[in-house]
Design brief:
The chain has 342 residues and is of the alpha/beta class. It has 11 helices and 17 strands.
């Protein structure tokens, strides 16, 4: 098989590897589509804990090519999407039902080889059958949509609320659609890229703001009579947007820090503001028990992702894809490992 390998942070190689055979309870999946995620960029830059050398890629879909001993729910030819996160079931968080916060979490594409390859071997329990009429690129987006579903649950959005979203990449645009499904009255999106702002408007944002030329705080206060937003979701990650998110929160607001910030990033918070205005600041980590819901949302068309995908590339183009992601030159890139051309 062929794969894009990160030998160490900052390096990418296209390599030939022996095609895996499935162990007991495992399947080998022929990868048809794999999304390039911001986490992949953070891994490449050495800003996210990962196992090196690594074949990254945790957003993928494909076809079961082989099924190992003990596998009965899947058979060769089944079209599947992958939940990359595997817990130990034994640590204290797992035993409390917080399996996504497992202290021994193994994530395909982060701490185990993933989908930037023509084939991937994984436990059969991590594969979900996808509808026959769903494209592989849409199926590959089940993982980020599942993470967003968990995030929306953490934000506890209620009908009629005013929501501010920082960032309109794939995550911001999916969060926008999910917030609107919750019945928000107004969704305000802050995004410096004009094309992404236009897409946010097309998806139903009441107002979009260019933070490089407009005062987002002024826009939010105008919409809320000076109170601030009911919910603020940072889809970017980083000290600047996290700090901004807290500042935009109104009385009784929830602030969701969803984007992946560098581990050493810090923000300044006034405890009195949290106390006096009962602001809740929360996080959202991966996708506990939301993968099936994400698949159903995609299959129903209630959440749309095809329009967000801007580039489709071959495996040889993974270095270019990482470079484009770092330069913010793409909304969403899909790698198609079975494509021969570069």
């Amino acid at each position: 098989m062929r794969a894009a390998l990160f030998p160490t942070p900052g390096e990418i190689e296209i390599v030939e590897r022996e095609t895996p055979t499935p162990a007991e309870w495992h399947v080998v999946v022929r990868v048809e589509a794999c999304g390039v995620c911001g986490t992949d960029l953070h891994i490449f830059q050495g800003e996210f804990p990962a196992r090196f050398p690594l074949i990254p890629g945790h957003e993928f879909a494909g076809v079961v090519e082989q099924a190992g001993q003990g596998v009965s729910a899947l058979r060769p030819g089944d079209r599947v999407v992958i939940d990359p996160n595997m817990n130990c079931a034994s640590c204290r968080p797992c035993q409390r039902g917080l399996t996504h916060l497992c202290r021994n979490l193994i994530a395909i594409g982060v701490s185990a080889d993933g989908g930037f390859a023509t084939h991937c071997s994984l436990p059969a329990r991590q594969a979900y059958k996808m509808p026959a009429d769903m494209s592989f690129e849409v199926g590959a987006m089940a993982e980020p949509v599942a993470c967003c579903v968990h995030g929306i649950e953490r934000a506890q959005i209620r009908p009629g609320e005013v929501v501010v979203l920082l960032g309109a990449g794939l995550i911001g645009l999916v969060m926008l659609q999910l917030a609107l499904l919750r019945g928000v009255s107004v969704a305000i999106v802050s995004e410096p890229d004009a094309e992404k702002r236009a897409m946010a408007t097309a998806f139903g944002a009441a107002e979009t703001v260019d933070p490089t030329t407009q005062d987002l705080t002024e826009v939010v206060h105008k919409e809320t009579g000076g109170s601030g937003a009911d919910v603020v979701i940072d889809c970017v990650g980083g000290a600047q947007t996290s700090q901004q998110a807290v500042g935009l929160a109104g009385e009784g607001a929830r602030v969701l820090l969803f984007g992946v910030a560098p581990p050493d990033a810090e923000i300044r918070v006034k405890p009195y503001d949290i106390y006096a205005r009962e602001i809740v600041i929360t996080g959202s980590f991966i996708n506990p028990f939301t993968h099936g819901a994400a698949l159903r949302l995609l299959a129903s068309g209630r959440v749309k992702v095809s329009e967000i995908i801007s580039h489709r590339m071959a495996l040889d183009d993974v270095p270019k894809a990482i470079e484009m992601l770092a330069a913010r030159q793409a909304r969403k890139i899909i790698v198609e490992p079975q494509r021969e051309e570069g």
